[in-house]
From TrEMBL:
Keywords: Cell membrane, Membrane, Transmembrane, Transmembrane helix. InterPro entries: Acrflvin-R, MMPL_dom, Mycobact_MmpL, SSD. The chain crosses the membrane at residues 16-36, 237-270, 290-308, 329-358, 364-389, 426-444, 584-603, 615-636, 648-667, 699-721, 727-752. Pfam families: MMPL. It is a multi-pass membrane protein. It comes from Paenibacillus terricola. Residues 262-387 form the SSD domain. This is MMPL family transporter. It is found in: Cell membrane. PANTHER family: MEMBRANE PROTEIN MJ1562-RELATED, MEMBRANE PROTEIN YDFJ. Gene3D superfamilies: Multidrug efflux transporter AcrB transmembrane domain. Residues 129-156 have a biased composition (Low complexity).
Amino acid sequence: MSTFLYRIGKSAYNKPWYFITSWIVILGVVLALIGINGIHVGSEMKIEGTESQKVLDQLAQELPEASGGQASVVFEAPKGERLDTPERAALLSKAVNDVYNLEYVINPAKLAAEAAAAAAANADQTQAAAADSGQQQATADSSQQQTAADSGQQQANAAPFGPLMDNGAPVTGVTLSADGSIAMFQFQFTVQQMDLPQEVLDSVINTVTSVEQGGLGIKALPSDTLSSKPAVGATEGIGIVVAAIVLFITLGSIVAAGLPLLTALLGVGISVGGAYAFSKFIGMNDVTPALALMVGLAVGIDYCLFIVNRQRRMMLDNGLSAREAASRAIGTAGSAVFFAGLTVIIALCGMLVIGIAFLSTMALVAAASVFVNVLIALTLLPALLGLVGERICSEKARKNAAAKNKIADRHGFAYRWAKGTVKYRWLIIVASVVILGVAAIPVAKMEMGIPSGATANYDTTTRQSYDAISEGFGEGFNGPLLLVARPNAADGKVTQEVLGKLVQGLQQHDDVMIVNPMGINQNGDLAIISLIPKSGPTDKTTKDLVADLRDPQSAIAQASDVNIGVTGFTAINIDMSAKLAEVFPLYVGIIVILSLIILLLVFRSIIVPIKATVGFLLSILATFGITTAVFQWGWVHDLLGFDTGGPLLSFMPIMVTGILYGLAMDYQVFLVSSMRESYVHGHKGTASVVSGYEQASRVVLAAAVIMVSVFAGFVLTHDIMIKQIGFALAIGILIDAFIVRMTLVPAIMAVFSDRAWGLPRWLDRLLPNLDVEGDKLIAELNAQEQHTSVKAKAKVANHH
């Protein structure tokens, strides 16, 4: 491996423009594809195979008009005033009708007229043959109207709200609170929000907010389902600035510091741009490019930093030319970069076995970002180093290195830290385990879900809309459930009598506020019901209600002899959290096994991979514990820019575990490969630990600070999902790099000493020698130098 990469590095250094031009062409192709296909991202997160998604898919086939996404808008009157004055009611009615006339929005009045016309036409064509059916349909219509009327009467008696009236007629889809200060407009699209063009959402928002220009003091608050804010803002620039400062301090040169930044930005430009270019053909969540940007920036900077640092050390310490040092750095440090990147990619691609489409897309895009950055580090970086040449090391750096080389004992802080860690290894091991164990305690109380309006900041329309709905109508109106009732018998029918009995049974449930029958399909084997719980979307009571409704043995289902399916945004979130919690252990098991195999090949050791994995488990538990305390319990929320704690993002543990495992193994490879290199080159016992730590700790420290800075930059974004992921990754890297890799790992390595590199003979024969530390490469180069020297001496002798 190291010999192969050495040749690639030398070719790129010698012919830089071939490689540079190739990457510029790739970037141009990506930009051209974006121009042709456009950018198509959404906010929907669906999980195939869950109960709620099955119901939604059935509706899409049998009753498409009921399967589209739902949205709501809240209108507020000035304090102490009402919305049902003639002027305000007329203004709201106009805005509502304008929304209904927009493309992709279902118009209930139009649907009712079309249904009546179709029923009349069908009755004329089948008078004799379907007399009984016609009578039954008429009875059904009458009964349905009566059921709806009864339900409406129940609502009027049970809840302090009613319809908004305009000129004596109710405004379709609008409900008015008891004090008349708040009106809620609920409507439905023909498709899910993810499939809606952005201009449609913009048109809806512009239409409903037009009431604010009516001069009547009305305020319009669109819900979060209508939000069109981008997931990624400019806050990641802060992380890049910090990374630039750290690079300059570490490498001591603006030129050297600029190369990792340049290559990382090109890498994320190609990978994230490529994801956008193909977003027309794949369903991509708006978190996906943000995640790829996070990971791509972090690994892109770190990998190039590792290689450039190795080149500079070879030039300053060993006196090699820039050309030879760059080639050897690609051969040695490049091997570590290759396997570190491979570990990250495996950890991300392990999500594919879960079988969740949006997570698979996120994982593949992030893995592609890592893959592109590895290729850039191994091909484009040496080409750029070829253009820079000897300027990669300034004259000042050369003089300082020469002065230090003359000093016998030139050990710095890293050496003293390593010696202290080795000396007090058992104390450090116990202290590290205790600290991480205490930090992990909140994990036991961790709750999963999807952040909603209840957790948005107070100054956002999303939170104001949520609070207004809760105040005016009840918290359950923020999370309505859609019920689909089917007869248990194969040839059964959902008659109006069955529907009425089901509605009455549902209304008697302790956590049900409103039950509204929405109709029966033409075949009579499917009924749709809208149900408003008393509790909020993320409350445990609502989860229990969904479970009760789905239970075929419940008193409600038994009394009406139907099977009840539950869907809607709230039910989908409940199912998503349950599904992800179910597959999480499987995912962790897969990535751990695969990564153990890679680490076994890289280090040719059994103890090192096991130690690395156990250390990661400690760090990931501590990470989730701190994240739970911050985002669920609300600790230091003011410092991080959010107002209210709430459930953690349901797919965050899987996503963060995959990324952190890969990145943690990066530091493991960088640090322990230096220890193994010292061991292979003659340092025995704890001396190899100290020597390897001294060589690699500076660059690992810089890489960790850069990664933490990049991820922390995303904590400043307004999107709570990106904020949670960025925080978990930042705190996870902080814990794993500084407590586990740079403190706990050398202590454990000192305990095992040379035994850490032991391998059974039968396994040693089976495993290929990948030569990650470059021992074979160095031996081959030394042999070539000796051969060249002998030939030169022979030539001189012959000349004389």
